[in-house]
Design goal:
This protein is an alpha/beta fold. It contains 13 helices and 24 strands. The longest helix is centred in the first third of the chain and has 19 residues.
Length: 449
Amino acid sequence: MSGSYDLIVIGGGTGGNGVARMAANAGWKVASIDCEPHGGTCALRGCDPKKMLIAVTEGVEWAANMKGKGLVAVTSVDWPGMMAFKRTFTDAMPPRIESGLEKAGVDVLHGEVRFTGTDSIDVNGETLRAKHFHIATGARPMTLDIPGEEHLTTSTEFLELPERPDRIAFVGGGFIAMEFAHVVKRAGASEVTVLEMMDRPLGPFDPDLVAMLVRATEDLGVDLRTEAKVLSVDKRGGEFVVTVERPSGTETVTCDLVVHGTGRVPNIDGLNLEAVGVEYGQRGIKVTAAMRTTNPAIFAAGDCADSGLNLTPISALEGRVAGKNLLAGKDAREVNYPPIPSVVFTLPMVATVGLSEAAAREQGLKFDTHFDKTDDWYSSLRVGAKWTGFKVLVEHDSGKILGAHLIGPGAEEQINLFAMAMGSGQTANQIKAMIFAYPSYASDIGSMV
């Protein structure tokens, strides 16, 4: 370690690595510190490894949908083999990322960081100083404050399971729980239970499409219980008993593994932000549109900041703005969020961009709702997809797309096209006039608006 820097970046993920490289390329003396190997949640413990598991289970889904349609196949998941496949990506990322930073001239360090003064931090008992800091520490599983919480397995630990549990319960019904429930059920688990405290899972997504996903999830064999508040988790021998309160009374779920899937919160607890005058709340570090904190020498971006949605591309965007402002020595740039698509990678996938019906009404907007199930469309029939549909909001007079909500195969790419159309201000009529390659999932978009 060298004791003094122009910039210290705290966090080695998407929201921090770009900033470190930008500053180093500009000739600044830079250190990047993470308590884990560099790569961040997305590359090592989140979206990328998760999607590799989903890729394997897509084979199971494909075979099931094509059964009786000419495909003769018996498929099953080899859990250790699937995990080994995932590691072909995740094992390679930290050395690749860290060596890239080092080649750019960044000092790559590891340890827990705590601010000790206006220009100083403690790392593993050693003091480092810097003129500027950038915080990109991401998020962690939220604390539930229930008896037996120590028995919960985190999403990080789930992605490292050497063997598949046969009976598994997920606390929460958000992205993590729903995606992992689909993975483990298609991988052969006999009992998979999702316990959601609200009246439906995936609250931010369109309720009509979520209802379709709920039916698909139940068809898969997942026991999805809503209005289910987890009261406690007890370990009894080699199994766990989850006690749940529901409107009909108290219930229990007995399983081999209980996974924390209730969401994540900013990972800032140990930073001692008070020592440097950085204000924060439950949603994270308070930042301006320039990604500057209440301490002018400190910036923050990504899931640890109270800014945009907690998505990897948002972290990258915020990091770029923070980096440019650091180098400029002033707030030369501000974050301008474009339409932001989001996808739940269950099978079927659910995707969204823009406003929901409720949000559009709250804003007093006038619009038409185009809503239909598409299981009888060619693109669904071709792949044997049962639960498919869309909901698109088209504004009166302007004809612009206010929001798009999709479920089914191809949704994760269709939603990007909707985001592009919304970002460029295209109207429904302009989209209808476009010529897409046919047959393709994209070619369905003209019929949705």
